[in-house]
Amino acid sequence: MRLIFSIGFYLLLWSISLNVQAFSLESDNSEIAEKSPETVFETCLFNAIKTADKDATLAEVETQCEQEIARKILKDGSDQEIELGALSHRIIKEKKTAADPYVLTPHKMNYILPFSYVDEINRQAYQEVPLWADNLKDAEAKFQISLKIPLLTGYWLNEGDQLFFGFTLKSWWQIYSDEISKPFRETNYQPEFFYITPLNYHPWGGNSALITGFEHQSNGRSQLLSRSWNRVYINYLYEKRNFALSFRPWYRIPEGEKSSPSSGQGDDNPDILDYMGHFELGMVYKYSKDFELSFKGRENFATHNGFVEVGATFPLWGKLKGYAQFSSGYGESLIDYNVNQKRFGIGIALTNIL
Fold first, then answer.
1. Domain ranges of the chain
2. Cα Rg for the chain, rounded, in angstroms?
3. C-alpha–C-alpha distance, residues 29 and 40, integer Å
4. Any catalytic annotation for residue 89?
5. Does residue 205 surpass a pLDDT of 70?
6. CATH fold for the domain made of 105-349
7. What is the pLDDT of residues 127-170, one digit of tens each?
8. Residue 304 known to be catalytic
9. One of 24, 27, 208, 218 is an active-site residue; which one?
């Protein structure tokens, strides 16, 4: 649990902004450096088609130009060779469909766990809800839906940067609790705005990016069941080949004290940092097209409260992938943030991280 931090990685994403902004093939760099992003891509495409192998498809030529542009943005004027990793390739694919109204872009991982077993639930929080505390089951379903929308892309503050709005919903569903009509025990909502920019920093031959953002997280409940907090964060992303790392420290935006426990105004959970810590570490390794391993961890070194989550995807049939997840510690959900839990779940991965 001393390892730290989250990919949630979110992703996961830096803007090597293959918003086609950058550059053509090496032979034409000096001629098009001042052109618009769209013109840069079109020029690259035109030159690539002229020199491409006759057996090459248009999709292959487009990918060649997008990767050239990505390398130029990451290189930022230096002469070193740039090798794109799994994270960069994800961003390239996302850029191709970013403007398509029929395509939703994933942010963090999307999954459904029809069976998820936990050894401890914060039943005390539900004492005021009739019948709930005594009839909640340790087995429940869990799922996460996470999407993002590009707001500004291309050359905004820096070449290859982007501004996003993201939204993540995570829910714990008491689907096996017939006595209380199978309610959704807890749902956490997490909207955020974040800015991504690539960095001309390549430790150990990898690539780097920086994310800064603001996020709100709450469970949408009122009075004694209400939990929420706001934070600003900085996220350093690193990739090398099939490995990606995210290190995300944050600062909680202070709130005033409640006048009474049932008051709708004030801090619902003033001690949340004692359990959630001040940062998160995430790592992902894409072993193959079908297998992906992930780690997420937090730690408060003053209170020694932490959290770890490991996950693995594996093939089922066709494009469908299985997903197994194990977690231990504090803060898996807002209602349970101060409860030490161990959980195992198995189900389906709707999207990978890389």
1. 26-85, 105-349
2. 22
3. 9
4. no
5. yes
6. Outer membrane phospholipase (ompla); Chain C (2.40.230)
7. 888 899 999 999 999 999 999 999 987 677 888 899 999 999 99
8. no
9. 218
